[in-house]
């Protein structure tokens, strides 16, 4: 195991005497480095091939929100990529497992949060395949590179939450599971990025940032367009409200098993006396919804007021508003869950 206890800034600098431009301190493989020194090799397969996994995690009042769920997901995904087989022969047959435990990574995140003086912010955790050669063979990379960045976050304005977002339906469907499972939160996000470009390009010419379209609904791939169902957006899961009832498509559609989605379904909605029904949602049902909202660690819960040319709601609908208020009450309250 790599020592994480001794990971300090090389200069011994603390978060308070950092040059502003050198924030944040970034943890890379056992060292906390100022931003300008936080680099990875050009031979890292994360860069060369998008070969790696990542998480986006929120910190509320110093608590790493849903820490265990994020750790479980990144380790599950790293295993899907066979990262635990690295470190042995070039065929990855003699490996002795991933070089860090979940507890190690939890401590790395805590340390990064503390070193950067973050009380409310965002953590980006990245495991790349590590440094190899120009070939594809992942087992030429002896050790994964682990990166942890803790920083402040400001995603959407309060006005945007109240007003709701405009989104489009991307022409590009979500990658089918047989090709690359969308539950694998890998560094290969081109499917999502190119759908996001479709959204940005659909924004009104010269629009101010608040009028730009920043999300796109991604349909599950089907050879028969009439059978296409709505999975998720480029960086968020999607829920609808119809006649007072909450719905979301099941994970098999396919989509990322969002941690915010699970929190809404299993904890938040029940705490407000609501239940979420999982049913494959056709685009027609989504367009016919009374309310639509998106969920994600970064965006939390945000309303959608328009999909392409179809108006959904006048601003944030009442059920979305009560879920968002409930969410904010939990993450700003005295008892932020530490599970
Ligand atoms: N879908 C995609 C494609 C995502 O990238 C994300 C996270 N940004 C989500 C859904 C939401 O997942 P979570 O709630 O775990 O952040």
Total beta strand runs: 16
Cα radius of gyration in angstroms? 21 Å
Protein structure class: alpha+beta
Strand content: 15-25%
DSSP helix fraction = 10-25%
* Average pLDDT figure: 92
Task: List low-pLDDT spans.
Answer: 1-16
Number of helical segments with 4 or more residues: 8
The biggest beta sheet reads: 10 strands, mixed
Shape: globular
Bound molecules: 4'-deoxy-4'-aminopyridoxal-5'-phosphate
Spell the H/E element sequence.
Answer: EEHEEHHEEHEHEEEEHEEHEEEH
- For the termini, the CA-CA separation is 25 Å
Provide a brief overview of the structure.
The protein is α+β, with helices and mostly antiparallel strands and 339 residues long. 25% of the residues lie in helices and 23% in strands. The protein has helices at residues 45-49, 67-80, 102-115, 158-163, 190-201, 259-271, 283-287, 318-332, and strands at residues 26-28, 31-33, 52-60, 63-64, 121-128, 145-151, 165-169, 215-219, 229-233, 237-242, 245-248, 276-278, 281-282, 291-296, 300-307, 310-311.
Structural overview:
By secondary structure, this protein is of the alpha+beta class. It contains eight helices and 16 strands. The protein has helices spanning about 45-50, 65-80, 100-115, 160-165, 190-200, 260-270, 285, 320-330; strands at about 25-30, 30-35, 50-60, 65, 120-130, 145-150, 165-170, 215-220, 230-235, 235-240, 245-250, 275-280, 280, 290-295, 300-305, 310. The strands form two sheets. Strands 7, 8, 9, 10, 11, 12, 13, 14, 15 and 16 form a ten-stranded mixed β-sheet that branches. It has a six-stranded antiparallel β-sheet with strand order 2-1-6-5-3-4. The longest helix is centred in the last third of the chain and has 15 residues, at about 320-330. The two termini are about 25 Å apart. The model is unreliable at about 1-15 (pLDDT under 50). The structure holds 4'-deoxy-4'-aminopyridoxal-5'-phosphate (PMP). 4'-deoxy-4'-aminopyridoxal-5'-phosphate (PMP) binds near residues 192, 237, 256 and 298. 4'-deoxy-4'-aminopyridoxal-5'-phosphate binds near residues 232, 236 and 259.
């Amino acid at each position: 195991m790599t020592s994480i206890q001794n990971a300090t800034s090389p200069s011994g600098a603390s978060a308070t005497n950092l040059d502003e431009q050198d924030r944040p301190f970034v943890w890379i493989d056992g060292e906390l480095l100022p931003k300008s020194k936080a680099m990875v090799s050009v031979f890292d397969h994360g860069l060369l091939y998008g070969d790696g996994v990542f998480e986006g995690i929120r910190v509320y009042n110093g608590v790493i929100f849903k820490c265990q769920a994020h750790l479980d997901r990144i380790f599950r995904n790293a295993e899907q990529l066979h990262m635990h087989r690295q470190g042995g022969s070039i065929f990855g047959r003699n490996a002795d497992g991933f070089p860090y435990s979940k507890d190690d990574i939890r401590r790395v995140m805590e340390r990064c949060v503390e070193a950067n003086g973050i009380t409310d912010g965002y953590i980006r955790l990245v495991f790349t395949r590590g440094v190899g050669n120009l070939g594809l063979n992942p087992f030429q990379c002896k050790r994964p590179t682990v990166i942890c960045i803790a920083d402040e976050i400001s995603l959407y304005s309060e006005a945007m939450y109240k007003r709701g977002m405009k989104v489009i339906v991307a022409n590009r469907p979500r990658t089918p599971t047989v090709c690359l499972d969308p539950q694998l939160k890998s560094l290969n996000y081109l499917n999502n990025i190119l759908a996001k470009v479709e959204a940005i390009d659909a924004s009104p010419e010269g629009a101010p940032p608040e009028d730009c379209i920043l999300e796109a609904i991604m349909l599950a791939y089907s050879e028969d367009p009439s059978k296409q169902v709505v999975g998720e957006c480029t960086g968020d899961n999607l829920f609808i409200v119809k006649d007072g009832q909450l719905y979301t498509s099941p994970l098999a559609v396919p989509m990322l098993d969002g941690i915010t989605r699970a929190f809404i379904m299993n904890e938040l909605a029940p705490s407000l006396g609501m239940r979420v029904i999982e049913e494959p949602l056709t685009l027609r049902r989504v367009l016919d919804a009374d309310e639509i909202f998106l969920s994600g660690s970064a965006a939390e819960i945000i309303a959608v007021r328009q999909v392409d040319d179809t108006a959904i709601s006048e601003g944030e609908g009442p059920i979305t508003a009560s879920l968002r208020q409930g969410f904010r009450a939990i993450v700003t309250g005295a008892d932020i869950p530490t599970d």
